[in-house]
Amino acid sequence: MSERWRRELGRLSELRPSDRLLEHARLGxxxxxxxxxxxxxxxxxxxxFALFAGAGFLVWTAFRPTQSVVGGxxxxxxxxxxxxxxxxxxxxxxxxxLGDETVKGTEGSYCWNGTTKCVDTVPPEFADFLVVPRGSxxxxxxxxxxxxxxxxxxxxxxxxxxxxxxxxxxxxAEPAKYVLSFVAHWPQGNVPFxxxxxxxxxxxxxxxxxxxxxxxxxxxxxxxxxxxxxxxWHVTEFKNVCMAGFTGALxxxxxxxxxxxxxxxxxxxxxxxxxxxxxxVVVEFDLMEGGPFSGATPxxxxxxxxxxxxxxxxxxxxxPGPVMYTExxxxxxxxxxxxxxxxGPEASAADQETAQQIxxxxxxxxxxxxxxxxxxxxxxxxxxxxxxxxxxxxxxSGDSEPTxx
Length: 405
What we know:
By secondary structure, the protein is α+β, with helices and mostly antiparallel strands. It folds into two domains: 63-68 and 211-404, no CATH class; 77-204, Immunoglobulin-like (Sandwich). Helices cover 16% and strands 35% of the residues. It has five helices and 26 strands. Helix 2 (19-27) packs across helix 3 (39-63). The chain is globular and about 55 Å long.
């Protein structure tokens, strides 16, 4: 990693808005607030919402993450994801994925949050070594600020240092058993991880498992966009969710990935995915039909299609769950589209590649052309009546409860 990027990432690490702040910045005030009874209170609430929502959108724009990620995995790529698993006092984890194989990293000695939690580990003894074809590409992902890596014959002899400046390296060592060692750096501390691997000549590698499934099904949205996905994956449509009116669809490799964002405290978007299994992969695309003025101008360039997973940004999220990536998308001057992708720490390389292909398949209109969306609704009264409408509806008493129709 160049010194310039280290400096920029250092600045970024100091700008960490809370999860609640990001949600409020994008949605404005909670939709669960009771509706005022008097005309004067209603006017005051409208004015306050306009001021808060406008400022909130600027906060979201200022604080949205700017760290690029690497996409386009193949069956010969070794993907190591470093993530936190809970409160700041808990230890992060490292998961290595190669094809259909998933391995959890062995932690070394560490201190977390200063001297709050320090552990001296027993020197690891490895019996099972993951077979890795010589010349495989190593990809580093996750929420760690930076990662140092090396390849040695034992865990305490680092051996050859790996250049991970751009988040990748080539495992081109002589065939033998090795320990792939990392030190992942977070503001709370530096944690070492070890993975036993056996590098073998490519000719000795068994026939590779199938790569990403074919994108043999197509979802077409009345708003004018479509995406392709494997028939075995699960599609969920949603319409007019939360006060901002999010409308779109998501596709996932597991069923029931979409969970209502409505709670007794309000409505939060995007929907949380922290309860999904660690192997889950989700791709979601939506249009915000309501909410504050976006600030787009006629000179703002539209997003270039096809979309690329390489352009998505990591979203810092607290607690356990998948790593989230996002990109704001503008079509025909409308900059209210958002692409979100969640990748579980144990997601297979094939499913991650499928997610990358789904992202690139998103298009507007026939043959990938773009068409502006309708001003309101989906443009299809029949579909509007069929899709589940999830919103917060105040009753006559002023109390507000989530309602699903």
